[in-house]
Amino acid sequence: MDEFVLALGGRGATDRWVAQQRAWVHELLAFAQGPVWAVTPADVDGWLAAARARGARTQTRAQMAHTVARFYGFLQVRHAHDVEEITGRPLVQPVDEFNQPRLLARVHVRVPPSAGEVEALFTGWRSGLPGLRGTAFLTGARDYVAASLWRRVGLRINETVRLQVGDWYPQAGPCGVLHVR
Hints:
By secondary structure, the protein is mostly helical. Helices cover 61% and strands 2% of the residues. The chain has 8 helices and 2 strands. Strand 1 and strand 2 form a beta hairpin. Helix 2 crosses helix 4 and helix 3 packs antiparallel against helix 4. The protein is elongated and about 65 Å long.
């Protein structure tokens, strides 16, 4: 729990928010009456149902479930091997697609593409540009340059929209200088 709290604090979370996250995890563990590795989806079902019976709003229950999912995600990334080695039981994520509140169900984990996948995308895109004609080429080239700037320089979309042709100074330095607004 202490490592989880430190990680939240490291992300810039407020003390009040971290305290609430910690309280919900402790509340679940007290409800389940067992160690972290013994909590099951049925325990989360009962805990969230009890919270509903106490009058907890839908959004609050979604935050509770999200906190538990985040905590177990943290444990799986950092300590799953140790837990299984010590207890002989795999660490299971107790918040699943069946017991998560509707608000949490809309949140999807997005796994970023690998460097190879990104390179394959841009290589294919670049090789397809010469086959385009007229405005299709201009549109494709514009989109390719914009996406390349996002990838290579880290520009935001709004910054890219404000760029003008005269904002690039190729003579300044080995790669030139781009004036970003």
